[in-house]
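Design job #97: recover the sequence.
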């Protein structure tokens, strides 16, 4: 906040929230691509469905 020159955390969050949302979604998609989305038959890791 201070580094960006904003006087309040509210101003910082209001200014950059859309960027953070987009970045988080992109990161989640990349993890899904790398690890698999868990949609495959047999269930996701840790869902209690042992094959």
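Job complete. Output follows.
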């Amino acid at each position: 906040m201070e580094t960006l020159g904003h006087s309040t955390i509210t101003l910082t969050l209001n200014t950059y929230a859309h960027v953070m949302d987009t970045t988080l979604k992109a990161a989640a998609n990349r993890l899904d691509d790398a690890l698999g989305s868990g949609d495959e038959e047999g269930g996701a890791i840790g869902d209690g469905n042992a094959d």
